[in-house]
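Put briefly, the fold is written as integer tokens. One such record reads:
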Amino acid sequence: MAMRSTLGRVRGMGSARDGTHHFFAQRLTAIALVPLTLWFVYSAVGLIGQDNGAVHEWASHQINACGLIALVIATFHHAQLGLQTVIEDYVHREGTKFIVLIGTKLVCAAFAIAGIVAVIKLAFGG
């Protein structure tokens, strides 16, 4: 039986020293998503009723393609950070937590890569 208090045991665990970075990364992606989403919605509304050629022409402009890629990256990075927080808070078995965290990172990365490839194909007429 240990003679340490609950506070003593918690102090003995040490700090992860990663919480601040994670917090700021999540806030940064959220802030980046606000103008990117507003720009995308404004642009998408302007494309309503247009044919595929107009959408291709719009996406082939460098600023629009870069904006779409930035939107895809920020969206999936923000999603991964949010899911990581939920998993770390609510999954208590370490092995399960590790597997789910790796799976979440892989799925978000795969979707981000697929989105970037789709934007590149659209921009270059594929």
